[in-house]
Amino acid sequence: MRIVRGRELLTEEQRIGIIQPPEDDWALGTYYTFSNMDMEVIEKRRKEENRLGFAVQLALLRYPGWPYNFIENVPSPIVNYIARQIGADPALMKYYPQRENTIWDHLKEIRREYGYISFTLKEYRLAFKHIYKLALEEGDAVPLLHECIDFLRSKQVILPAITTIERIVWEAREMAERKIFNTISKSLTSEQKEKLESVISTQSPSDTRRTILGWLKEAPGHPSPETFLKVIERLEYIRSLGLETAETKYVHPNRLLQFTRMGSRYEPYEFRKFKENKRLSLLTIYLKNLAQELTDRAFEIHDRQMLRLMAKGRKAQDEIQKQNGKKLNEKVIHFADIGKALIKAKEESLDVFEVLNSVIEWNSFVSSVEEAQTLVRPADYDYLDLLKKRFYSLRKYTPTLLKTLEFKSTKSSETLLQAVEVIREMNESGKRKVPSESPTDFISRRWKKHIYEEDGAINRHYYEMAVLMELREHVRAGDISVVGSRKYRDFEEYLFSEKEWSDAKESTRLAVSLSFEDFIEERVETLEERLSWLSKNWNKLDSVSFEKGRLSVSRLDKDVPKEAKQFSESLYKMLPRIKLTDLLMDVAQITGFHHQFTHASNNRKPDEGETITIMAALLGMGMNIGLSKMADATPGLSYKQLANVSQWRMHEDAMSKAQATLVNFHHKLDLAYHWGDGTTSSSDGMRMKLGVSSLHADSNPHYGSGKGTTIYRFTSDQFSSYYTKVIHTNSRDAIHVLDGLLHHDTDLNIEEHFTDTAGYTDQIFGLTHLLGFKFAPRIRDLSDSKLFTIGKASDYPKLEPLLRGQINTKLIKDNYDDVLRLAHSIREGAVSASLIMEKLGSYARQNSLATALREIGRIEKTIFILNYISSESLRRKIQRGLNKGEFMNALARALFFGKQGELRERTVQNQLQRATALNIIINAVSVWNTLHLTKAVEYQKRLGNFNEDLLQHMSPLGWEHINLLGEYRFNSEQAISLDSLRPLVLG
After folding, report:
1. DSSP letters of 510-534?
2. CA 625, 629, 634: angle at the middle one, nearest 5?
3. Tell me: the pLDDT tens digits for 824-881?
4. What CA–CA distances, in Å, run from 651 to 593, 603, 614, 742?
5. Helix 608-622 vs helix 626-633: angle between axes, to the nearest 10 degrees?
6. Which of 102, 288, 503, 610 could form an S-S bond across to 606 if both were Cys, CB 3.0 to 4.6 Å?
7. 10 Å Cβ neighbour count for 118?
8. What is the pLDDT of residues 396-408, one digit of tens each?
């Protein structure tokens, strides 16, 4: 059968990588071990070289599946392993290819004996049909290629040329895309099509230098009423296109996400190059997704405005305190003097008014009282009374908020939405008075003090502010959803349904029993065991005290030998000095991490020229000097080239895979195992200043008055950074811990995780246990930590002062199944842990699910603290883990020196791209250093007097020998491999 060679998806290097048989021990044992039946068939050959050739051909057909003559060089480990099994001399293999007829005769016999079939048009069509179905769900060529190969293998089809398989995948993918694009474009009306065309061809209403699409893509600036109105204007424009009728609901979510990413990268002129069905479909998918993003941004701005409202109230009260400080002090002095006089009058039976007059003249006393009344603050020292004038700043955008966004609720929040409707109707009608029958039951006591006037009428200003504040709280908690939003949906929509959970129970990957009784019995036993042990041994613990019912643990002494620093310096002195550009190219050639930067549109891997451009872009972003400055400092590269690869090749998925490639390579290095086995890690935030107006920029008093954001980085015990995300600077670290543990792409098997105090909450303790992780934070204020029992605290009299609470096991029992459903939803990726934890912790009146998870967490926190104070080795392990994260941050600060370490990107996506580029460089430094430190160690061992125990105390994150500055030249001509590392500096 002749099949015309079609579109190719792989480079020649990639093809060799797929066709080449594996030669590791696991593969040899799995694929190339013969059974007794195999040996009988093989032994029918008379000549030894024919027996060996026949056996090798049989083995290769089993895996990787290609005929012997398709594979240029059979690895010697495979030939040797097979030769030993059949008792042949592996050197005879060179004689086997000399008679081509023998090879074909052997292939025919293998087909007859084992049922293998040749690849014909029938198999082509079967494979095409199979891949076509998958291509409707997945557009990435490489997974589809592997799936096609696996499918043919499962049918015992002898694999054709790799280019034929590429053609199957290419055609199936093209047909799948065509079907999707035709379905969507046909569902559009002629009016919708015309409007979509204008999006990429017509100038925007606010800026004639840009198209409407460029205007719609504009990142929002500082959260303000003006920014809100601009976001709503763009949202309303997209809504006017009427795209909700477009047929996208039948497209697989994974494909929708891929098409959305593509659409976000194309400029208008690029859209215009596509055929109509592709152009309109990509625009439709992208704009529908953008509408969700704009909806989220709009409510997020409202969220920030309400926070700012309250902050201004607090600030106003503080200002009053500062301004009136002297007057208030005078009043206190007067009060003290008057008090003394009254006490004297009482004790000596004197006339009160005469005594009072001797202290202060009556008129002055009356004036002082009147002045005090003007200075007085509410008894509870609340500042809500100062917010009345702030109402008008909210009115700049809130009528548009209530008019444009649609809210839905659970039954518990129905009255709040009725109040929202009351305000909406008042806005539309122009009425000023709030109807007396307006619902108020949802309003907290704090606000109710202000919403009623003396005559019983409802104060509009306070009523509206209270409604808007409660709306914020309920939406954040998930009690109220925002229609068309991705982030603010109904709480139940984030979780697997009860039916889905019921079907998945038997195969769930949770680490606890599905039975509450079994779960609680095991945790009770563990908790009581730790309490009993500590009750008997508390006075034997060093560095731990229980004075006056308060727990305290002394600071750990350093356990790093004095000679460790000198030892590390001696090894680093041997490392060759190197430019960072050369270091990146070395690591790329050794690890191949650059192959992960596939093109977002066609999935092609980069060639040599593109690889250099990618490395330059990585440095430009990871060192924060920017692409423009990087182009100026790199001969032969332009800004447009760097911008192109950053847009199309350095997408989130590619960056994550490149990072994982480096981490996985480093994980397998022998020296890395002196630092850890890759089962523990730590996470810590590194705050970065933001030099531009951004929706996500904010100040944190802990870091000063400047606005910024936080790079939250996960560091393995082997000094590799395996996950990064950008979080709000005021976000609690704890809610992001599980994102990194669950969703990194590396081979690391993290079992235990360390954080500082900001990295834990009771609920995180509960979730990490349910998901099978050991959670070990360093708790700063240990004396204030509340320990819990399940039984009676009096059962442990020596510890009773520490045991300040009792676990509500009934609450856990009543909600246990829902808690497991929540954990399962997080485990399987239905919802991110950070999003759901933010909702669980955002609302003061938490639901029973949140409180049940908190109770489970209190059990785990108590067990952990008992272990923490009982074990100095645990405390040291946590300390060492956190120190590794601090070493990582030190290198990150040294690398991220551009713009004085200040981020200038408005969106979280662009900030994350920079943070991940920085992480990739850090990991490349770690890999390069580890490889060359290994050479240095081997050299020192040959000299003798080598203390191997000191290796555990060093780090591969040193950078004194690396030139981070200067002109950037990338040399791709010097071949670097594991066998040709740069020479050490000796002598």
Report:
1. -SS-S-HHHHHHHHHHHHHHHHHHH
2. 110
3. 999 998 888 988 888 887 654 557 888 999 999 999 999 999 999 899 899 999 999 9
4. 14, 12, 12, 21
5. 120
6. 610
7. 14
8. 999 999 999 999 9
